Amino acid sequence: MTKTVTLDHVSIRFGNYLAVDDAHLEIAGGEFFSFLGPSGCGKTTLLRCVSGFVQPTEGRVLIGGDDMRGVGPNKRPTALIFQNLALFPLMTVAENIAFPLEVRGVSKKERRKRADELLDLIALAGQGDKKVTELSGGQRQRVAIARALAVQPDILLLDEPLSALDLKLRQHMRTELREIQRRVGLTFIYITHDQGEALTMSDRVAVMSRGVIEQVADPVTLYDKPKTAFVASFVGETNAIAGKVTARDGDVVEIESASGLRLRGIAAGGRNYPIGETCLLFVRPEQLRPDGGAANVIQAKLAGDEFEGNARHLLLDAGDLRLRMMLVNDGRMPDVPDGVVKAGFDVESALVLPDGPLAKG
Ligand code: ATP
């Protein structure tokens, strides 16, 4: 059965430390929902709060509308998968999957039947008698998912389950996980610090920083319409240029950077940007192009370039600004007379946001 999960003004303190600050949102039944944020932002704590291993200091968690206060982890309709899969190496694949059922006293015949169904689901039909040590990393991952699903939870909680896998397998498993979620139709709550994972798999993503949920949105909205400087700099690559507001005309804000660059972008969130206020203008590398005739132009020196087959990344220095430009074409190098690139971009492709902390790295 699919169930909603409601975080009703949840705050979690460890002593004086506020690990989660007033999380308030509802996850729909059958939704693939991710919490995305850097290490230490509180996402694991929040997940443990849904599973019942951590209690909210304030607020409450509801599952399917039921208040979970006083309901222990074993009594909740949730199952948890960790990065460390903890499969039993001496057991077969089917025994691993059926283990939680054995603990609950389910008959051998019923266990076998359920294990076979789950093997089918994870595309390992007929491989139940193999030892888990004979499986690849990705197959083991699928067995861990099947084992979590054996007890028929309503909600599957996944805590960075792909981080131990190598890059290629991780990318492959994104697709698999999403397909398994669609097939079982359960609510999946996924924790990750990897924005690529969150964007590719999720229906919606909550971006967290320092215990605070900064924005909840679908992946496209997060990428195109970040609400804070942190979200703009954490989700996808971007160039951030600080400046003071010098003019405003409708939605368009002009800023002047410390080095005297005058640039225009779209004001985010329909907010008022008073003249003189310090703001940040964000423009994605793929929006920059070598074009001295564009609405915004930054004259820069070429500091490096990286060829990536279908794209080329230019590193540009403009005074104290380091910019990245991504050319998505046949990857050919543009003409760069005297090492100077006129980095142009449209007003509509730049977003002006209030000043705030940026994501590191
Ligand atoms: P990571 O990806 O590194 O696991 P995270 O975003 O999941 O990071 P949490 O594990 O939720 O972060 O931790 C959030 C903060 O709360 C951290 O500063 C952590 O040190 C602190 N914290 C977590 N659990 C406890 C605890 N039981 N007692 C005290 N502090 C804790």
Summary of the model, kept short:
The protein has 361 residues and is an alpha+beta fold.
Helicity range: 10-25%
Low-confidence stretches: none
User: How are the strands of the biggest sheet laid out side by side?
Assistant: 6-7-8-3-9-10
Average pLDDT, all residues: 92
Tally of discrete structural domains: 2
- Counting helices, strands and paired strands, the structural category is alpha+beta
- What is the end-to-end distance? 41 Å
The CATH superfamily of the largest domain is known as: P-loop containing nucleotide triphosphate hydrolases
Number of helices, counting only DSSP H or I runs of 4 residues or more: 8
- CATH class membership of the largest domain: Alpha Beta
* Number of strand segments: 20
Main pleated sheet: 6 strands, mixed
Bound molecules: adenosine-5'-triphosphate
What share of residues are in beta strands?
35-45%
- So, CATH architecture of the largest domain? 3-Layer(aba) Sandwich
**Which term fits the overall shape?**
globular
